[in-house]
Fold this sequence. Notes:
By secondary structure, this protein is α+β, with helices and mostly antiparallel strands. It is 41% helix and 18% strand.
Amino acid sequence: MCPLILKDVLGEAPLHKAAKVGSLECLSLLVASDAQIDLCNKNGQTAEDLAWSCGFPECAKFLTTIKCMQTIKSSEQSDGDHCVPVFRQKRSFGSTENTNGKRRCWIISSLIF
């Protein structure tokens, strides 16, 4: 089983945990690693639902955007005659050390048409 879809006793995957604490950085890395964004916990909540309910609208909007992009991509694959432009992303990963000695991951995305 892929570690990105392992769930705890609450039925929460790493994506749920990142959304609950408002970590856009972690959400970005998990999504870039193909984490499933539509997984529900035992209460039937997705990571997007948790981000909204925990007061992290930036994270919720990010997940909403990713969900929409995946829906468009999925509909394009199922309907070969329908052509909708999809944005591809170039990503650059790396890390830096902040002032308290902890390493912080970063992701840079640029849209390509």
